Amino acid sequence: MSHQDHDDFGGITRDLPRLLGRRRMLALLGGAGALTLAGCASAATGTSTGPDTPNGTTSTGEIPDETGGPYPADGSNGPNVLDDAGVVRSDIRSSFGSSTTIAQGVPLTMTLTVTDGGTALAGAAVYLWHCDRDGNYSLYSRGVTGENYLRGVQEADAQGNVTFSSVFPACYSGRWPHVHFEVYPSLAEATSSGNAIKTSQMALPQDVCETVYATDGYSASVRNLSRVSLSSDNVFGDGWEQELGTLAGSVGAGYTATLAVGV
User: Fold this and answer.
1) Residue of 77, 88, 74 lying closest to 152 (CA atoms)
2) pTM strictly above 0.85
3) 3-state DSSP call for residue 173?
4) I need a labelling partner for 180 at 20 to 30 A (CA). Which of 58, 198, 200, 204 fits?
């Protein structure tokens, strides 16, 4: 699969003026050189935030805005899955509608907690999507244009939580392993082509990626991961401390990922 088939550069170019202004201001205020790198969590805990996690990542502030990339299927670049019956669901492993194909891979359950100013944003909606085990995006990539798996919408509960059952995504050429999401003020807004109030991405920690990619079906990801880092990634390279998911679990039992999403 070529790099051109699976990059987010088209989306980042579109969003560059907005992102650059915000990130330049953050650099001036915080000083990128002040960050240091922390080591991996102990394997005995089964929990990791990755080897490149900067120290002091307890901020509960707003998560950075990021590109939705070229494969959002939210109507901004071709297909719009958000107005399809069946998109509101917690288990996003299968396609819905005319196909019921199930995406294969190591199980991954993701819980995002949406807040506004530190207060749970109950009733907000999250649209989440990512590539499959082969690095393909449903509705866009060659061979899966007729699928809509690994995409879904959930409404936040009273604690601001949304949970999705999925599979661990691949590492494709040129990008660090990641999951896309958009936050909408309500479920009605999300499913009627309304305006998202936040678009961002969750990065996955390196040690867990390496463990998962050593299993059957992820062989291409081993090579791709060796050629990229969080620091060199075109999205996370300017700071990932608020976007790195916390993962726990194992290949056999599956993994859970959590991320605080301040809007």
Assistant:
1) 88
2) no
3) coil
4) 58
